[in-house]
Amino acid sequence: APKKNVKKKGAASKGPAVEDALAPGDMSKEELEKHVMRLREELDRERGERNYFQLERDKMHTFWEITRRQLEEKKAELRNKDREMEEAEERHQVEIKVYKQKVKHLLYEHQENLTELKTGGILSMKLAQKDHWAQEMELWKEKCSLKVELKEQELAHEAVLKNKHLKQEQEITQLCNDFERQVREIEARYTEKMHVLRNELDLRRKTEIHEVEERKNSHISQLMRNHEKAFNDMKNYYNDITLKNLDLISLLKEQMEGLRIRVDHLEREKADALLQNKQLNESLQQAQEHIFELEKKLVRYDKDKEALTNAKAHLKITQKEWKDLQWEHEVLEQRFRKVQAERDELYQKFTKAIHEVQQKTGFKNLLLERKLAGLLEILEKKEVELSEVFAASKLDQGALTLVSHKLEDVLNSKNTTIKDLQLQLARVCKAHNDMLQTFEAKLTAFGIPLDNLGFKPLENPMLGQGPAGLVAVPT
């Protein structure tokens, strides 16, 4: 067993090494037996070590096999994951292409709807302007007629007012004379009564004034404490709420100032006792009404507090909605940047195509013009040569007519070819001008100014005029 071998190994390692000092022939019998025993022990020790190392080797081999299998499994899993990631990336790219196509279609439909709405809005605005101008003229005419009528009514009213003022002044002077006479009589009668009553009422007035002052001072101090307390409470509350309740605070301040002015007014009006009693009763009644109003306002305070909590909850909801809208705004801005980049790319492609078409059409126009100029020069030369041949040949009239008919036929055929070439040239120029017009219309529809092209479009108005109205007249 491996454990016994390990113990033997430890024992052998602790014992002395094999001594080979003497040869076996020189040893005695006892020494040979001891030597054999040592050799056997050494052999057993080496066998135990060999078995131990074989077990260790087997363990290492099994561990290596297990780790190799695990490594192959992990590599297979990694390959599967890579394959799944590639498939997911392909599907993602396909979805991105589909969504790009959808966005392009939506942008095209949006642009079409915008153009239709703009045209409809312009037409409706023009019609509305016409209706507005017509209504304005009618209203101006009515205004002029009303001004004339108003002027006439003012003149008539002024005449009536003058007559009324004269009559009223006469009546007022008569009434003033009557009232002055009655006042003198009444003053004479009541001066005597006042002397009698003044002496009697002085004592009563002093006592009543003293009592009224005590009641008034106690009531005023109580009112001032209550008003100060209510004012401080309302001030602390309305400083915490929004700016909308500042009007209420200012109103309360004005009411407090009114109360203070009223109290000062009561102190200044102590001279006349009877009038002061009436005024104090009135002021007490007004103060009680004001206290009742303050109690009502305290009830309203609870309602305002509840409304404030509701407003805070509504504010939280609106803040959340604002954050959502802000996130949507950022998403839309990213989409807008992508769409703008695509628009710039399409614009570059479009300008490149326009350059190519311009070069091709310009080259064709130059070729056709050169061909036409060459044919015209050849025709002139042929006519000159023909006239010289006719003059030199001195043919009879029949031959001349025959030759002239043939020449007319040839010239007619050449003229038809020239007209065909001119017609082709006009059609090419017309197509070129139409393409420029559509290009400018597209640029204005996309909001791109014509100065940003970097070149000036080549437009030939003389070549664009074709026969039979095939080519539009340049504007």
Automatic annotation (TrEMBL):
Q: What is this protein called?
A: Dynein regulatory complex subunit 4
- Cross-referenced PANTHER family, in alphabetical order? DYNEIN REGULATORY COMPLEX SUBUNIT 4 (PTHR31543:SF0)
GO terms of molecular function: microtubule binding; small GTPase binding
State the taxonomy lineage.
Eukaryota, Metazoa, Chordata, Craniata, Vertebrata
InterPro entries referenced in this protein's UniProt entry, alphabetically: GAS8 (IPR039308), GAS8_dom (IPR025593)
Q: Does the keyword Manganese apply?
A: no
Q: Which stretches does the entry tag as region Disordered?
A: 1-30
Q: Where is the composition biased (Basic residues)?
A: 1-11
* Species of provenance: Nestor notabilis (Kea)
